[in-house]
Every structure is written in C-alpha cells, then in structure tokens.
Design goal:
heterodimer; A: alpha/beta; TIM Barrel; 2 domains; 8-stranded parallel barrel; 3-stranded antiparallel β-sheet; B: 407 residues; alpha/beta; binds zinc ion; glycosyltransferase (chain B); Queuine tRNA-ribosyltransferase catalytic subunit 1 (chain B); tRNA_ribo_trans-like (chain B); tRNA processing (chain B); TGT (chain B)
Chain lengths: 494, 407
C-alpha cells in the first residue's frame, strides 16, 4: 500500500474526466480523505454522500427547494424512468437535447449526477436476472433490461458517472455456490460491455465515467472477475461500487486509488462510521428519507459533543427527535440548536410539530432539508476528524454518546408508494398502510399497493394518489376520516 | 343599536376604475404591507400552503394568504398561538394573513353543528365533547392568530335553502353577531374586521343586510354565503346587487370564489378580493391551470410533451433554465404527478402563480382602462368557440356593458 495512490495515467486524461485525489490514507482498511472533481461540477469531498433521488427529486424536495438542501451530487436510478419499456420508448429517451436527464429532472448544472440501474435500496424483483438481462422494479411493475439497453440508455441520458450492472439476486436469503459463480461471470461480461460501449463513443461527444461493481461475495468467488478487472479494465473505470463494505478487505490493492461508492445500505450513523473506518468514500443514505418519512428530525453531530455532566452520562443521547410528540407543540427552538439548515434558520420546532400532526406536506419538506444538513455536517466532522488523526477515538466517543440505532417511528409518515419500499418492508406493507389495505381489499386489487397499477379504475387511482400526497389523512381515527371526506366535498365547490 | 365608528388598520387607495364595467383597481395598505387589488388569496388552511415554504409562496408573488380559524383553533390551538406570538410568527410569514371566522368551516364540516343566538354548537372532532363557538370566541381566536384581516362570525346557511324565514333569521342574526364581534375585537388598530353580508339569493334580504352592515362602518366588507352550489346567474345577481350599495372606498371580498372565469366576471361586477382552495387542491390531482383551461397532466399524452406547463408562464417551474427558472416540462410533471410530493409542490407553485398573475393582468387592464377588451380576450382563449361561452358569464357581463359575443 502506498500513500501516493494516483494512477500514472491520470494526467493524460482529457479534461472532462473525473478526477479522484486521495488526500490522506493511512493504509488498507482505514479511513481516508479524498476529493472527487469533474470540471463544471461542485467538488465532492470524501467521505461524503449523494442525495438519493426518487423519480428525479430528493423526496419532498421540489427542484426550486433543492438549492436549500446542501447536496453536491445525486444518485438517480434508471428504473425510475423506464416503466413502460419495452412496450413504449420511455419519454426521457425522446428528449432531443444534450444533458437530457439533467434537463428533465431540472438538476442544477453543477450537481454531480450518478446513474445506476436500481433504486437505493433496490426492491427484490421476482424477475430473475439472466445471462443477458437484469430484473428491475418500476412503478408499473417488474421489467428487465439487457446490458446493451443499459449502455444505450446511459449514452442517451449522459450522467457524469454510471454504476455498471451487477448480477445480484436481491432478496434471496441464501445464494448457492453455482449462482455465485454466475454472478461473477455475468457481472464481468456486463462491465466489459459498458466499457466497450463507452469507449466506442466518438471523440468530442460527451462521455461518462464508469464505476465497476464489486459483488457482495467472497473474493475467491469473484476472483476471475476481479483479475480481469485488473488485467484489462482498470484503466477504463473511474471508481468501484461496493455492495458489501465488510468485504473491503478483499479489494485488490491495484484498485485502491479509485473512489469507492458504497451500495451497502447503512442502517444508521454508526454503520456509516464503520464503513468509513474501512475506507469507504461515498454513500447514498436511504435512512435520511426514511427518518424524514417517520417524522424524525435527525439530531447527531460528529464528533459527539462533550458530555456536560456526569449525572446524565449513563443514558445515551437519541440520534433523532420524534417530531410527532405533542411535547414539542410550544417549542420555539430550532430542531437542533446551531443547525444552519433552512428549516432551523427559518422555522421552529412547534411549527414543524404542528405540520406533522396536521399532516401538512410541508412538515416532511422541512424535516428532509434538516436531515440532509445534519448528514452534511456529520461528514464535515468526519473529514476533520480523519484529517486530525482522531477518527478512531471520535468514533468510540460517538458510540458511547449516542444510542446504537435510530429511534423507532411512532407517527405515520406520508403514504409509502410500493416502489419505495425496501425489500423487507414489503412484507409488512399491510401493516404500514392499514387504510389502504382495507380499501384495496374492498376493491379486490391488492396490487394497488404499488400505487399506480395500470388497469385500475381511474377514479380509484385518484383516491389512492391523493391520499398518497396528502399524507395519511384519516388514518388515525374515524372522526378525522369523516372530516376529511367532508373536506373534499367542501373543497370541490368553486 | 347605534353604530359605533370603528378604527381601521388599512387604507384603500383607489387607482383606477373601468369606464364600462364596475371593475376597480386599488392598492390595499395592510399592517404587513401593501397588496394589489383585485387580488386572489391562496388558502393556507392549517398555516401551510400544500407543501410550499413561505419563501416559495412569496416567490410566487403572494403577499396575502388565508388561514382558517377553525383549523388553527384546533391545531395548534389558542394557547400555542399566544405562546408563539400569533400566526405570522408561527408560520414565519412576513406578509399579510386573512382569517375566516370559523363558522363556515364548522357548519360545512361538522354534521352536528347547530346554530343558536348564542353561537354555533358542535361536537369536538377530537373527543366528541359539545363545544360552542360564539362571536366573542371567534374574535378572541382571531386576535390570538393576529391576522391582518379578520372576519365576523356569521350565520351561514346554504343559499339554496328554500326556507325564507330561516334565511331572514340568519341574515338578521349575522348583523347582531357583527355588533358582538365589534365589541369583542381587542385590536382594531392592527387587525381589520370585515363584516359579511348574508341573505341567500333573496335580493331584498341582501339589500337590507348590506345597508345594516355598511352602517357599522367596518374597514372592509365581505359578501358571504355564496359559492355553495347556487346557479351562477343567481350568484352574479347577488354580487351585482350588493356592490351597487357598497361605499367606493372600501375593499369588497367575495368569499370562496376562485375559478378564473368567476374571478374576471366578479371583478367586472365590482368585487376586489377572492379566496379559494381549488387552485391548490386541484394541483394535487395533477391539474394545471392555464389560459386555455385546466390540463390534467396525468393523462398519458403529456408524458412526452417536453414543453412548459404553460408556454410563456413566468413561474419558477415554467421559466426556462436559461432564464433562471427550472424548465420543468409537462412530461416531468407527468413523471412525478401523484408519485412524489415534489410533483404536487411544483404544480401548486404554477397554479398559485397563474391565479396571482391573472389578477395582476386584470389590474393592469383596469388601470389602463381596457378591461372590456381584456375580458373578450380572456374568454376567447379559454373557449375555442363563442358558442361555448358560459351563458351566465355572457349575461352578467352584458349587464355591466360588455357584450362578449360581439366582435
Ligand atoms: Zn436543521
Ligand atoms: Zn408556470
């Protein structure tokens, strides 16, 4: 392991290419500092994170509000855009302009755009991957796409970075040895594919950088793939996308100079710190939006604050504040004191508590802005700590100061759309959306849980969709349900 | 009852009158800044406008929005409002707020509401305990809210009610309740109490009520009890009859009106202020308001329309990226409509902007004394053929000197 990890050929690359400078490393399986730059885009310091988008928007953050969100880069999933493939050409491919995806979702020109096939986290697709195709879940149901299709889509959409296709049977509890062999073989073929297609793009035309997937299987099971990656693909890739952070140990040294995007979903900040301590650079963090939907305002700092008095030292601090609690109703303080986010500088806790209990969409908007800022500050703290060489102690102090996991949610979030469920949540959907379940049962269309099944009666779809947007009007008790129904009638007048 | 002259916390600055119709343009100076009249006021029922931040609402051009007293009285409640220091601080809104009295919400939302001379009796939606909203309590709540314009509690019954005796009772009671509201009002020097003219569709009752209300000299005057499903012709006749008897130098507010064609006709009949939940509510269903009518962007046909929601619209969504806007297309709205809350926020921004901009153009047309031409152009854009013009609009405008059907 060498500290000077820059690849020798970096200086010869054309100026539009992505650059990753390792600013500090202290060996394998250790935290590191880096800087990801692409001309025209905001620099991303690592460890850092990407905004995790849903259909082109960070959930609850409309594009004009995005500038209040302190996000320098976003992760976008192709499966959000190709729901009617192959019956019809997805609309986004019909845009006749450069930077089509960026334009379509109104992403600022200086925000880094990373495209992958699957949402984060991916929902297991019952359509199995094959030698040539990968299964996806779109809002219209399960689809599959070929590696070729993926490459064509990427070329059309022009992201800055694309995560190569990986053959991972999501949701499968145990994966046999033979299947693991296949994973490695297919992923290799698909990685070669996308490299070849990218290299085939003519000079002068926009190119994208490729992050090669590293599979969540033991090194010896993907050794062929990794060997070939090193032998003849390493100069063509600009980063790696890692599905299991705990296998970073197995990462070949010749790939150390590359930025590492974690696709290993962290459950909370403690797990983020563990991944960072193993040398992970870049994250998508689904727990931010999950906390937001649960009405939890994240409330943690890194390094953790000094403990003030010994009396409270036995109890650990919560990682988040449940904004549903009526005890906040008269609190004129910010969500987190000293927080510089839009919500904390413009509004106070009492208002946000009111918005949640009134099921006003703005509540989730403000908490989401706050939660992203909390993570942004968290990563700044992490980088400073690595810089100072105190990361290990700071992590220990953090673990001692805060509870090990995020608080359980108590209140209802906005209605969860089917394609937004993580795999494990899927099973509990009926519990999550009790009223919807009842409605669907009545209508005999259980698939309606995906929120937009194509054959539903339009009027039924309206009902579901409106509830989805209002949040959970009427879910708490019958009186409110009745009230809400009457509201509709009253609202319908001119 | 001897009318007491009450202080006013507003100035009505008349800027121009249409030489043909009864339309007026003015600037209304309120405690939280001037607002242009005629005006459309978006409804932020529970101190929030459908997912928009106050900054977004401000960016859309809004300087006066509504809060509902009934909702704020339940949540966050009077104690919290007092503790925080009123609704402006509560929702971080530096501009003006108008609140209703709460009575209308109660009667329309709660089936067990019962009106007596004392007030409106209803069962708490929280725990079913009987509660009473009196004129005094409504004003006290609105005093706590601190809204710039507050409304009297009135006795609202459906305009379509055939019971003339009940209608008269409601009208007379509303006058008595106004007197109680005036007496209960603690801050007339910083909150403007508006009376509400009742009387259903009976023009004699309306005239009688108007005279009584005007005599009480409130800073502004509302025409209430409409928008309850009555025929549009009857609606227009009532507005026309009332404005005829109203003093020129006071703002006139027609409650619960918001369809674009209703707005432009009501302005021609001499009304200045309007509110309605429709533009923001309909955005959540994927409906975009445009000069050529309402488009439901959830129709699959829009999935490949890479044009703004409305060509030429200057809202932040429709304006091009080159022009500092977002360049949001119909196709993108289709992509997110009813799937992401952000999609609803974008359409809400557009719809609010449409309504506010419509009133801005109305105002310019009045000031330049070309409102009749404006009306003709407005209807010719909205309907592709004169035969489709709504009869009530044609009749109402004919009554104030504009023949939409002539060339
Ligand atoms: Zn904050
Ligand atoms: Zn617009």
């Amino acid at each position: 392991m060498t500290n000077d990890a820059s690849p020798p050929n970096l200086t010869q690359l054309p100026p539009e290419m992505l650059e990753f400078a390792l600013l500090k490393t202290t060996g394998a399986l250790a935290p590191r500092l880096g800087r990801l730059t692409l001309p025209g885009r905001k620099t991303i310091l690592t460890p850092g994170f990407l905004g995790n988008t849903s259909r082109g928007a960070v959930p609850h953050i409309s594009q004009d509000n995005f500038r209040n969100a302190s996000i320098n880069g976003v992760y976008v999933a192709l499966e959000d855009y190709i729901e009617k493939h192959p019956e019809t050409t997805p609309p986004v491919f019909q845009i006749d302009a450069p930077d089509s995806l960026r334009r379509f979702i109104a992403l600022p020109t200086d925000t880094l755009l990373v495209l992958g096939a699957r949402r984060q986290p991916p929902i297991p697709s019952p359509v199995a991957n094959t030698n040539s195709e990968i299964g996806l879940l779109t809002s219209y149901g399960f689809r599959s796409i070929s590696s070729e299709y993926y490459a064509a889509a990427v070329r059309k959409l022009q992201p800055d970075i694309v995560v190569g296709l990986a053959d991972i049977p999501f949701g499968q509890e145990t994966v046999g040895l033979k299947r693991k062999d296949k994973m490695s073989d297919r992923t290799e073929v698909w990685t070669r594919d996308i490299i070849a297609k990218r290299n085939g793009i003519e000079k002068g035309e926009p190119r994208y950088s490729i992050f090669a997937p590293i599979l969540p299987i033991d090194q010896d099971l993907q050794s062929w793939y990794l060997e070939h990656l090193l032998d003849d693909m390493v100069d063509d890739i600009s980063g790696v996308a890692i599905y299991d952070a705990y296998l970073l140990d197995d990462l070949p040294e010749a790939l150390y100079h590359l930025p590492r995007l974690s696709l290993h979903i962290p459950a909370g900040p403690h797990e983020l710190l563990r991944q960072i301590s193993l040398g992970m650079d870049l994250f998508t963090i689904p727990f931010i939006s999950n906390a937001t939907d649960a009405g939890i305002a994240l409330d943690f700092k890194f390094p953790a604050p000094q403990k003030l008095d010994s009396a409270t030292s036995s109890s650990r601090q919560s990682l988040g504040v449940d904004m549903w609690l009526a005890s906040h109703a008269e609190s004129a303080t910010p969500l987190t004191s000293g927080c510089t986010c839009y919500a904390c500088t413009k509004h106070h806790t009492a208002y946000i508590q009111h918005l949640l209990s009134a099921k006003e969409m703005l509540g989730w908007v403000l908490i989401q802005l706050h939660n992203h800022t909390i993570l942004d500050s968290f990563f700044s703290g992490v980088r400073a700590s690595i810089e100072n060489g105190t990361f290990e102690q700071d992590v220990a102090a953090f673990e001692a100061f805060y509870e090990p996991s995020l608080p359980e949610k108590t209140g209802q979030g906005p209605r969860v759309r089917g394609y937004q469920h993580s795999g494990s949540e899927h099973k509990h959907m009926a519990k999550k959306n009790p009223k919807a379940f009842r409605n669907f049962e009545k209508e005999g269309v259980l698939q309606a849980m995906h929120g937009q099944q194509p054959n539903a009666k339009p009027e039924m779809r309206d009902v579901i969709d409106d509830e989805a947007l209002v949040g959970l009007v009427g879910l708490e008790n019958v009186e409110q349900g009745e009230e809400a129904e009457k509201l509709k009638i009253e609202d319908a007048k001119s | 009852m001897v009318p007491v002259s009450m202080p006013s916390a507003l100035t009505f600055e008349l800027l121009g009158k249409c030489s043909v119709t009864k339309a007026r343009a003015a600037t209304l100076h309120l405690p939280h800044g001037p607002v242009p009249l005629p005006i459309f006021m978006p409804v932020a029922t529970q101190a929030s406008l459908k997912g928009l931040t106050p900054d977004q609402l401000e960016d859309a051009g809004c300087r006066l929005c509504l809060n509902n007293t009934y909702h704020l009285g339940l949540k966050p409640g009077q104690a919290t409002l007092d503790a925080i220091g009123g609704a402006h601080k509560f929702q971080s809104w530096p501009h003006n707020i108008l609140t209703d009295s709460g009575g209308f919400q109660m009667v329309s939302l709660l089936k067990l509401a019962k009106v007596t001379e004392e007030g409106v009796k209803f069962l708490s939606p929280h725990d079913g305990t009987p509660m009473l909203l009196t004129p005094e309590h409504s004003i006290s709540l609105q005093n706590s809210i601190g809204s710039d314009i507050i409304m009297q509690l009135d006795d609202v019954i459906a305009t379509t009610s055939p019971d003339l005796a009940r209608m008269r009772e409601a009208m007379e009671r509303s006058v008595r309740w106004l007197d109680r509201c005036i007496k209960a009002h603690k801050y007339p020097e910083r909150q403007n109490l508006f009376c509400i003219i009742q009387g259903g569709l009976d023009l004699d009752l309306r005239k009688e009520c108007t005279i009584e209300m005007v005599a009480r000299d409130t800073p502004g005057i509302a025409i209430g009890g409409l928008s309850g499903g009555e025929a549009k012709d009857a609606y227009c006749t009532v507005v026309d009859t009332c404005t005829e008897l109203l003093p020129e130098k006071k703002p006139r507010y027609v409650m619960g009106v918001g369809y674009p064609e209703d707005l432009v006709v009501s302005v021609a009949l001499g009304a200045d202020m309007f509110d309605c939940v429709w533009p923001t509510r309909t955005a959540r269903f994927g409906n975009a308001i445009t000069a050529r009518g309402v488009l439901n962007i959830r129709n699959a046909g829009y999935s490949t329309e890479f044009t703004p929601i409305e060509e030429g619209c200057q809202c932040v969504c429709c304006r091009s990226q080159e022009d500092g806007g977002l360049g949001i297309t119909r196709a993108y709205i289709y992509h997110v409509a009813s799937k992401e809350t952000a999609g609803a926020h974008l359409l809400t921004i557009h719809n609010v902007h449409y309504q506010l901009n419509l009133m801005k153009r109305v105002r310019e047309a009045i000031i330049e004394d070309r409102y009749p031409a404006f009306l003709k152009e407005f209807f010719s854009k909205l309907y592709d053929d004169k035969s489709k013009y709504p009869g009530w609009a044609v009749n109402a405008l004919k009554g104030v000197g504009v023949d939409l059907l002539s060339d």
